[in-house]
């Protein structure tokens, strides 16, 4: 399953792990993805979202209805 936040669109970043001898190997910085279930009053049902920790804070600030409208406007299925 891909590590992409449904609210912010945050995707993994890529870089190098640098050892003590300064050998660089590829590594991946995954966002902190959580599965959260929200009640959406405008839809009248629960919605399960794959959101990052920062996405959860965004939902707390803006409200679930505003965030769901943005997700649906992108054409993403809930």
TrEMBL record:
Keywords: Ribonucleoprotein, Ribosomal protein. Transmembrane segments: none annotated. It holds the Pfam family Ribosomal_L28. It comes from Cellulosimicrobium funkei. Belongs to the bacterial ribosomal protein bL28 family. The keyword Ribosomal protein applies. GO terms for cellular component: ribonucleoprotein complex; ribosome. It comes from the Bacteria. One of its GO terms (molecular function) is structural constituent of ribosome. The keyword Cytoplasm does not apply. SUPFAM superfamilies: L28p-like (SSF143800). InterPro entries: Ribosomal_bL28 (IPR026569), Ribosomal_bL28/bL31-like_sf (IPR034704), Ribosomal_bL28_bact-type (IPR001383), Ribosomal_bL28_sf (IPR037147). One of its GO terms (biological process) is translation. This is Large ribosomal subunit protein bL28.
